[in-house]
Write a structure and sequence with these properties.
It catalyses: L-dopachrome = 5,6-dihydroxyindole-2-carboxylate; 3-phenylpyruvate = enol-phenylpyruvate. InterPro entries: Macrophage_inhib_fac (IPR001398), Tautomerase/MIF_sf (IPR014347). The chain has one domain (3-114): Macrophage Migration Inhibitory Factor, CATH 3.30.429. 29% of the residues lie in helices and 22% in strands. The chain is built from 2 helices and 6 strands, in the order E-H-E-E-H-E-E-E. The protein has helices at 14-32, 73-88, and strands at residues 3-8, 40-44, 59-64, 95-100, 108-109, 112-113. Helix 2 (73-88) links the parallel strand 3 (59-64) and strand 4 (95-100). Helix 1 runs antiparallel to helix 2. The two termini are 14 Å apart. 20% of the residues are buried.
Length: 120
């Protein structure tokens, strides 16, 4: 159920979207040690977005995952910021990342929640 949302003022060319999503999906699966078949990536590009009073390339990432290990977020930040710079040209200093780890009963999928005993 790991979910990465990428909001950016950079517009991604349609022919580059699939590759960008695939790279981010693989990175999230590897970082979290979870099967990529559960990873969702959402791209919200070309947005009106200002960072530090400037409309230069910037991004906000939201990474949501059950059991997200807080001790690992510095490493996740390094990796995700580097990917934003490589894939989008967004300097690492212009990326914010919001990490979230919801309780199992507050994340639903397939007609139930992850607290449902049928999911274990």
């Amino acid at each position: 159920m790991p979910t990465l949302q990428l909001h950016t003022n950079v517009t991604v060319a349609p022919e580059r979207r699939a590759e960008l999503l695939a790279r981010l999906s693989a990175a999230v699966a590897e970082l979290l040690g979870k099967p990529e078949s559960y990873v969702m990536v959402l791209l919200d590009d070309g947005r009106a977005l200002s960072f530090g009073g400037s409309a230069e390339p910037a991004a906000l990432l939201e990474l949501l995952s059950l059991g997200l290990p807080e001790s690992e977020t510095p490493g996740y930040t390094r990796t995700l910021c580097a990917l934003c710079e490589t894939l989008l040209g967004v300097p690492e200093r212009r990326v914010y990342i919001d990490f979230r780890s919801p309780p199992r009963h507050l994340f639903g999928w397939n007609g139930g929640t992850f607290q449902d005993p049928r999911r274990d």
